[in-house]
Write a structure and sequence with these properties.
The chain is mainly alpha-helical and about 475 residues long. About 70% of the residues lie in helices and about 5% in strands. A 4-stranded antiparallel β-sheet has the order 6-5-4-7.
Length: about 475
């Protein structure tokens, strides 16, 4: 099972890049995919393409290539994660004794993650060692150490995410304070919202410049085979373009060689000869560019609103003495955690989206990770904190939580039974208490009547004795 989890992704990804290269080469050369030169060139191209798919930096014809496509890397991550999850499930089924989810991580999760990382690291080292720039179809080269580290790290992270739900990691995460968990969830949602905003911006620009993109395809790759290869290349780099669009949306922008673009400024420069470059701005930013800041502002405000009003009162954490300063801290700290989470996620995406692109006028492609982190912190933390503080009057959570805690204290047996989840038993107990009280009242009334009758009888006897005298 461990061999299957570790080896299958390596073989599947290599087979996929070989088949894709064979189809493109055959279409360009007019031969069948199984003939020469299509298959031979595809087999020769498979090794550097496999490394590029795993985000391993290459040197192609003596020029560095560090800006690698994220779309196939995301596909590899999903494949490794799915197989790792299935492997943990199968190991659990084959276990002699059933184990709890908290016990699966050391016994099942760690071996699966370690196997996937080790095999991918070994495959990366081997692939880099097999590259021969002088004789290969693609004259590429790579460092074996870097290849093993990057490929192994990608597999390890993907496998760990895949087995997390099966190995009890959520139980360990739930041990963290509630405001941390709520902040992380809101931060991941904010990152997804900003990515969606960047993708929408990219789609709008693509539709607006569809004619320029079509002309670029016709000029660069007029044949069917070369056009298909260029289409696959652009599709593979779409996540990189989306990350750059998010950076532009937030304010820091991006750079391609000497060209720089942001909503507030632009520096002209040469653009790469690919259709995606037709989406890049060629002049100063338009007058409406400042309106895009409404997107991160709306995301930050939504985060503050959700964190302030979207959770039950009892889950907002202890307020202590209920003073205004403590109340402000309770409201603001999950917003800050959300901003930090979203900033880290998008900063990592910015690092992966850019890189070296040859050694000419298009080098390097920079999506500033530091600027993205600071921009996300500003756009999420500031409006989110303001909205969280204005969502309800200061001190209201403290009063509500104190009232909730006082109302939860059982004062009778009926309330105590209801608190533990037995309303029917609480009603029976309440009814029994009412009957007992009624009996006590009745007994007291009967005793008073008996005493009155006894006193009347004694008085009558005294009157009779007096008359007889």
């Amino acid at each position: 099972m461990l061999v299957q989890v570790a080896v299958v992704p390596v073989l599947v990804t290599y087979a996929a890049v070989v088949v894709l290269a064979a189809l493109i080469t055959a279409s360009a050369s007019g031969t069948s995919p199984g003939g020469d030169p299509g298959l031979g060139q595809a087999l020769g191209s498979g090794v550097p393409l496999w490394l590029a798919v795993h985000l391993v930096p290459l040197t192609v014809s003596g020029a560095p290539l560090g800006m690698l496509p994220l779309a196939p890397a995301i596909g590899v991550a999903f494949l490794v994660g799915a197989l790792a999850r299935r492997g943990v499930t199968r190991l659990g089924e084959l276990a002699d004794e059933p184990t709890s989810r908290s016990e699966r991580w050391p016994t099942q999760g760690v071996p699966v993650v370690a196997a996937a990382a080790a095999v991918h690291a070994a495959a990366g080292v081997l692939a880099a060692a097999l590259l021969t720039p002088d004789t290969a179809t693609i004259p590429a080269d790579a460092s074996p150490g870097t290849a093993g580290l990057v490929a192994g790290l990608l597999a390890a992270v993907s496998a760990a995410v895949g087995v997390a739900a099966r190995c009890g990691l959520p139980e360990g995460v739930r041990a963290l304070p509630g405001w941390v968990l709520r902040g992380v969830r809101a931060g991941l949602g904010a990152a997804a919202g900003l990515v969606a905003g960047g993708a929408a911006l990219l789609l709008v620009v693509l539709l607006a410049r569809a004619d320029a993109v079509a002309r670029s395809f016709a000029a660069i790759a007029p044949q069917a085979g070369s056009g298909a290869g260029l289409w696959f290349l652009d599709a593979a780099y779409l996540p990189n373009a989306a990350a750059a669009a998010v950076s532009w949306l937030l304010g820091p922008g991006y750079e391609v060689g000497a060209m720089a673009a942001s909503p507030t400024s632009a520096t002209p420069g040469l653009l790469p000869p690919v259709p995606l470059a037709a989406l890049l701005p060629t002049g100063p930013p338009p007058t409406w560019a400042g309106l895009v800041f409404a997107v991160p502002l709306a995301v930050g405000s939504l985060v503050g609103w959700v964190l302030a009003t979207g959770e039950p009162e009892g889950s907002r954490g202890p307020v202590g003495s209920g003073r205004a300063g403590r109340d402000l801290l309770v409201r603001v700290r999950p917003v800050l955690m959300a901003a930090l989470t979203a900033g880290v996620v998008l900063a990592v995406a910015a690092v992966l989206a850019g890189g070296r692109l040859g050694s000419g006028p298009f080098d390097p492609v920079v999506v500033p990770a530091g600027g993205v982190l600071l921009a996300v912190l500003g756009w999420i933390a500031l409006p989110g904190a303001v909205v969280a503080l204005l969502a309800a009057p200061t001190g209201a959570p403290a009063r509500r939580e104190r009232a909730a805690s006082s109302s939860e204290e059982p004062t009778t047996a009926a309330e105590a039974t209801a608190v533990v989840g037995d309303p029917a038993g609480a009603e029976d107990t309440a009814g029994a208490e009412e009957e007992a009280a009624a009996e006590d009242v009745t007994d007291g009334t009967d005793d008073e009547d008996d005493a009155t009758e006894h006193e009347d009888g004694a008085a009558a006897e005294r009157d009779g004795a007096g008359r007889s005298d």
